[in-house]
Design a protein that fits this description.
- By secondary structure, the chain is mostly helical.
- It is built from eight helices and three strands; from the N terminus they run H-H-H-H-H-E-E-E-H-H-H.
- The protein has a three-stranded antiparallel sheet.
- The mean pLDDT is 96.
Amino acid sequence: MTFQLIDLPYDDTALEPAVSAKTLSFHYGKHHQAYIDKTNSAIEGTDHADASLEAVVSAARGSNQGLFNNAAQSWNHAFYWHSMAGEETAPSDELKAKIESAFGSVDALKDKLKERGAGHFASGWVWLAEKNGELTIEETHDGDTIADQDGVNPLLVVDLWEHAYYLDHQNKRPAYLDAVVGSKLNWAFASENLARGEAWTYPK
């Protein structure tokens, strides 16, 4: 089985001005495609050839850093595309209640996501996740992921690598976070992930 680059769940202009069509053409069309291609090349003819992407990530963690980086980045990026929407969606009642319990309000959660994202050193990701029945904000560095962590259900993620925002916002990561977290998060996707109760899986 070879993995395919997922279709974007919106038109390439849908996220503007937070994320431009030009950024998507490079980030999605070049960076994400390269991670997929390198993952496929690395697993061809191996025991991982017919495994799910999540299984590849888990098996490669700590044993094959090159494969782990490319497989995890393939997963993270697909999850990131779905974590955004052209028009901000509303959280389900279940998600809204958990947000209010953990952070006070949706706006307070947004502020915390922006704060953690802006304060994250160098490249990585900032996540909203469910852990032990409670919502939490997690950070991973470089190509790391929480996709294969037991007991952790990722709900949303925001990419903090410079190639996610440099064409649109230059070095101003906070401006990118204001734009994406402020009005482009896909709370419907997060609600689906919460209701399912286990980590999203990469489409086959």
